[in-house]
Design goal:
By secondary structure, this protein is mainly alpha-helical. The protein contains 6 helices and no strands. Helices cover 53% and strands 0% of the residues.
Length: 108
């Protein structure tokens, strides 16, 4: 989960996910001590992104403070309510659109 979150939301790698500039900014500001005014345009232009090591160090130092604001990083148990809801299928979010279309074709 940590690796997929980093790849989809924080790295410059082209994935199905959309980047999260606010979290990128918080990590880079914390780890590199570069002022926000300098970082913001570079992040928006995809010229800079935190490394995986910076992401891990930030997470360990800051805890979940910034990351849990986004559902991608929020612990699954906090919103799945597995004790109250019966799940028949679990679909990975990065494939949800495709897989749900296929699923609905099969079940009618």
């Amino acid at each position: 989960r940590a690796v997929s979150g980093y790849r989809q939301k924080l790295s410059t790698e082209k994935t199905l996910g959309n980047p999260l500039p606010k979290i990128q900014l918080a990590i880079l500001n914390s780890e590199r001590k570069i002022p926000e005014r300098v970082l913001k345009p570079k992040i928006e232009a995809s010229e800079v992104a935190p490394t995986f090591e910076e992401y891990v160090r930030f997470t360990l130092k800051e805890g979940d403070n910034v990351l849990i604001a986004d559902a991608h990083f929020r612990p699954q148990y906090k919103f799945l309510k597995a004790d109250k809801v019966r799940y028949d299928y679990i679909i990975p979010m990065e494939f949800a659109e495709h897989m749900s279309t296929e699923f609905f074709k099969k079940v009618g």
